[in-house]
Design a protein that fits this description.
Helices cover about 0% and strands about 60% of the residues. It has strands at about 1-5, 10-15, 20-25, 30-40, 45-50, 55-60, 65-70, 75-80, 90-100, 110-115, 115-120.
Length: about 120
């Protein structure tokens, strides 16, 4: 199986910065993508950003220019650098990965989620 472990959440004032980290471990043959979602109280989980195995990144419009996602494919790590934080960024942030555990290229990729880390931005 695969495990995702996040770290780096916390409480910060408006305009502050935080850095989240996520490490994937377990049976990993191929990593298609890693990234971050978030879920605020009473709202649906939404994409924050993704980092693909080929090095491409994608971001939600609401975080473009403020958040930067990066990764280390060899170590199965992904980071989220958050700057210019706003109260609207308050949410539980979940690490997400699309990973193939099987050794055959025909084996399926599966989605995995971390346990979540709280980010709170005070006004």
């Amino acid at each position: 199986q695969v495990q995702l472990v996040e770290s780096g959440g916390g409480l910060v004032q408006t305009g502050g910065s935080l850095r989240l980290s996520c490490a994937a471990s377990g049976r990993i043959s191929s990593l298609y993508a890693m990234g971050w979602y978030r879920q605020a109280p009473g709202k649906q989980r939404e994409l924050v950003g993704l980092f693909t195995g080929s090095g491409e990144t994608t971001y939600a419009d609401s975080v473009k220019g403020r958040f930067t996602i990066s990764g280390d494919n060899a170590k199965n790590l992904v980071y989220l650098e958050m700057n210019g934080l706003k109260p609207d960024d308050t949410a539980v942030y979940y690490c997400y990965a699309v990973i193939r555990s099987g050794t055959l290229t025909s084996d399926p990729y599966n989605d995995y989620w971390g346990q979540g880390t709280q980010v709170t931005v005070s006004s």
